[in-house]
Amino acid sequence: MICNKCHIDRPLVDFPNNKKFRDGKEKTCKLCKYKRNAEWRKLNPGYRHKYYVENIETHKQQVKAYRESHREHLNAIKREGYSKDSGRYREYSRKHYWSKEKGSEKRFARYTRYNKKIIKELKPTYVKRLLSRKMGLNYNLIPESLVELSKTQIQLTRILNERKPQWNQ
Ligand SMILES: [Zn+2]
């Protein structure tokens, strides 16, 4: 289908669904639509917040109505303790992930070996992972210098822990 904005012939999946159109597809491609929305937001800063404040009552009612109509479903979620933060969920997804295919045990063993290696040798991958998990840094933006510093710190802590008994005698 040809987009009415950029006039590029694109596959149907590149057009947003919209029931208002007979064929169920909007005539402007997703990219053009996204660009237009982004520009509009730039020209109208604070609109979202203003809209939220002005429509807070409507919003609250919508949330309430949703809760009421989906009560069973929401209760089920609560019962299951289904939460991305809960240990149970993480454990479940981990198990699930590793049991998906045949030979997953081998794969898991390889993964464990790899992890042990990067932890022992303090590879940048591991140090960056720690920094992003514990300090909330963006994994991809962590500078090498910080990785080096952090590595030294971990090494020092390891030496301290290792030799503590002999120093305390
Ligand atoms: Zn377009």
Q: What does the model show?
A:
- It contains eight helices and no strands.
- With 169 residues, the protein is mainly alpha-helical.
- It has a domain at 122-169.
- The longest helix is centred in the C-terminal third of the chain and has 24 residues, at 144-167.
- The mean pLDDT is 84.
- The chain binds zinc ion.
- The site of zinc ion has 8 residues, from helix 1.
Instruction: Return the structural class.
Output: mainly alpha
**C-alpha Rg (nearest Å):** 26 Å
Largest sheet report:
none
N to C succession of SSEs = HHHHHHHH
Helical proportion, percent range: 55-70%
Q: Hetero groups bound?
A: zinc ion
Sequence-ordered SSE layout with sheet pairings:
Blueprint: H1 30-43, H2 47-54, H3 56-69, H4 71-80, H5 87-98, H6 104-120, H7 124-135, H8 144-167
Helix pairs in contact: 7-8
List keywords for this structure.
169 residues; mainly alpha; 8 helices; 0% strand; binds zinc ion
Task: Summarize, please.
With 169 residues, the chain is an all-alpha fold.
